[in-house]
Fold this protein.
Amino acid sequence: MSVSEHTRSGDRFVYVLDHDAGLRSVLEESDRARCRQHAVAAIAEVPAGAWDPQANPYPDAELGLLVLDGLLIRDVTVAEARCGELIGPGTILRPWDESGADAPMRHDVDWQVIEPLRVAVLDQHFLRVVAHWPPLITALVARANERAQDLAVMVSIHSLKRVDVRLLAFFWHLADRYGKVTSDGVLVPLALTHRQLALLVGAQRPSVTSALGTLSERELLRRDDEGNWLLTGDPPDDLSVLTPNGVAA
């Protein structure tokens, strides 16, 4: 993807606190209005499809890119093994730093935008602003820690033996961040395909399709008419309840 395919217009800015309730909430009420006026950032947009941030590194983004809207997958390949990370609003990225070509254990990193991205370019001006409000610095560091914790959970989910158990654990993990409680269950409004789910849980696409059928038959997870996912019942305290004899196969 070339630079010309990105919207990086210098006259398009966003009040960051208007679009990030988490950052806004850490400030005292008396500080929010003043901070809002100063904490502005340029907007960049990335269309759906393959994204090559190495070809478009956003040199002004000293702190990184804050995802405001959209969804993408970071796809990491080591030898023939692949692992995907789902990234959405609230995440801070520096994707141009992530190249495994020169690492001792070579690995490839690819990016796939699922839903068009809108990001705030956190530049030197933004850094100078947040320096006046230490709670914002703490919140931004916490974002990085949350992402690390999320990845640790995903490593554990990948280690589960059964694909249906992995998928159920994965969707309940997503529900904590994206879920919406409805009369029918917990809706996860992410139109993820079977192929994308296979990458995210470390399985083959046919195995994912079969496992989703099993979960649907057991009325634990199903897809709605709009392609989103619906979890029914409560989160299982013990995932071994999915297996006939209570032991993961």
Notes: Residues 3-157 form a domain with the Jelly Rolls fold (CATH 2.60.120.10). Helices lie at 16-19, 21-25, 29-38, 124-130, 134-159, 163-178, 194-201, 205-217. Residues 134-159 form the longest helix (26 residues). The chain has two domains: 3-157, 161-242.
